[in-house]
């Protein structure tokens, strides 16, 4: 079994749960020519909304379909590697961002929904030995949701303690535009009137830093267990938002276990 995981895709898992590309040098056999597929299910424990201090269990499909080293359909969405060399990979992908619903948590009452929308991502990763340095830039393509842009920088280290176990670990940091911050952490006058909260204005800036550990254990040639654990700290205007500072927490934890089948 060969494993494929790009740094920003793993480290941004809980940002959009579209677990978020070009493969970090994995060791083991290279991908087969033509079609490759992996299907599974990942059970996640994560905050009810970004900044919440209450948690939920959420099942997430774990899907990865590739054609050669160029086209893919996975947690990042539908995409293509435009550049793919031994040390540098870059490309674009299209995905759906589900937004946030007002009824996700009592703290969001009166704030309305952040509608779902189509998002586009431009990504790049530079590999140095067992380390991958990545950049993802994602934007709302339709203006129907948060109407903003995020940029995530990350580093991930790969280790293979045994023939059956692959581990990935590393930090990341995410910057968000003013529109994104306003959608998820701001409170407009209309929202303040409905919710009884004070008006809260936000600006662009770094939204969070995180550290994530991801593992894949091969049970057989086709079956594998997957696990993820991490911590994210909200920063700046995200940390100081009333839905975080008063009703939630800037400290965000997440984890999950799953199983997958490759063919």
Automatic annotation (TrEMBL):
The UniProt keyword set, sorted, is: Cell outer membrane, Membrane, Signal
Query: What are the record's GO terms for cellular component?
Result: cell outer membrane
Enumerate the subcellular locations listed in this protein's record, separating them with semicolons. Cell outer membrane
Say which family it is in: Belongs to the MipA/OmpV family.
Q: So which residues are the signal peptide here?
A: 1-25
Question: Where primarily located?
Answer: membrane
Protein name, as recorded:
MipA/OmpV family protein
The source organism is Aerophototrophica crusticola
Q: What highest taxon heads this organism's lineage?
A: Bacteria
């Amino acid at each position: 079994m060969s494993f494929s995981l790009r740094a920003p895709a793993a480290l941004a898992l809980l940002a959009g749960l579209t677990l978020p590309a070009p493969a970090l040098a994995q060791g083991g056999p290279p991908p087969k020519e033509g079609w490759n597929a992996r299907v599974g299910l990942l059970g996640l424990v994560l905050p009810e909304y970004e900044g919440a201090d209450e948690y939920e269990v959420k099942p997430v499909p774990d899907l990865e379909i590739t054609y050669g080293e160029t086209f893919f359909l996975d947690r990042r969405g539908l995409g293509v590697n435009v550049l793919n060399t031994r040390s540098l990979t870059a490309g674009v992908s299209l995905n759906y961002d589900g937004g946030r619903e007002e009824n996700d948590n009592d703290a969001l009452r009166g704030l309305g929904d952040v509608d779902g929308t189509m998002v586009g991502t431009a990504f790049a990763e530079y590999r140095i030995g067992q380390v991958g340095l990545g950049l993802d830039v994602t934007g709302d393509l339709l203006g129907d949701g948060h109407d903003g842009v995020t940029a995530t920088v990350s580093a991930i280290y790969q280790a293979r303690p045994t023939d059956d176990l692959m581990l990935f670990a590393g930090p990341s940091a995410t910057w968000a535009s003013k529109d994104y911050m306003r959608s998820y952490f701001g409170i407009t006058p209309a929202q303040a009137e409905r919710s009884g909260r004070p008006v809260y204005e936000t600006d662009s800036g770094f939204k969070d830093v995180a550290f994530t550990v991801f593992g894949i254990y091969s049970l057989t040639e086709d079956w594998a267990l997957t696990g993820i654990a991490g911590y994210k700290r909200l920063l700046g205007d995200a940390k100081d938002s009333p839905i975080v500072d008063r009703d939630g927490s800037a400290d965000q934890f997440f984890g999950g276990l799953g199983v997958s089948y490759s063919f």
